[in-house]
Write a structure and sequence with these properties.
- The chain is an all-alpha fold and 129 residues long.
- The protein has one domain.
- Helix 1 runs antiparallel to helix 2.
- The model has no long low-confidence stretch (mean pLDDT 87).
C-alpha cells in the first residue's frame, strides 16, 4: 500500500506542478486579463482532496475489495458535493470573477477527475493481478 501511495503522491505532485506551470504561463501571457489570484489555492485544494481520497481508496482495496465500487462512487459523490459547496461560496464572495473562476474550476475538476480515475483503474488492475 505504501509503495502505491508513494507512486501516486509522486505522480500527482508532478501533475499538479505541470498544471501550475501551464496555468502561470497562460495567466501571465495569453489570459492576463483573466488572472485569478485564487488559482494556486484552488489547485492546492484539488491536490489535497485527490490525495486524501486516493489514500482512503488504498485502504478500501486492502480491506474490502468487494465493496470498492460502491465506496468509490459514494466518496466521489461526497467529494463532488464538497467541490460544489466550495465553488458556490467562492462565487458568493467574488461575483466579479465568477465566470473566470467557474471556467478554471471546471477545467481543474475534469483534469483531476481524469487523473484520479486513471490511477484507480491502475490500482484495480494491479489488485486483480
Amino acid at each position: 500500500m505504501q509503495n502505491n501511495f508513494s507512486k501516486f503522491l509522486k505522480g500527482l505532485s508532478t501533475f499538479t506542478l505541470i498544471i501550475l506551470g501551464v496555468g502561470i504561463l497562460l495567466f501571465f501571457s495569453i489570459f492576463k486579463q483573466y488572472f485569478l489570484i485564487v488559482f494556486p489555492f484552488v489547485l492546492f485544494f484539488y491536490y489535497v482532496s485527490t490525495l486524501l481520497l486516493h489514500r482512503y481508496m488504498l485502504k478500501i482495496t486492502r480491506n474490502d475489495v468487494s465493496r470498492f465500487s460502491f465506496k468509490f462512487m459514494m466518496l466521489s459523490f461526497l467529494k463532488m458535493f464538497i467541490y460544489i459547496i466550495f465553488g458556490v461560496f467562492y462565487i458568493i464572495f467574488d461575483e466579479e470573477n465568477a465566470v473566470n473562476f467557474l471556467i478554471v474550476y471546471l477545467i481543474l475538476y475534469v483534469a483531476y477527475a481524469v487523473y484520479e480515475v486513471r490511477s484507480v483503474m491502475k490500482l484495480i488492475n494491479e489488485s486483480k493481478a
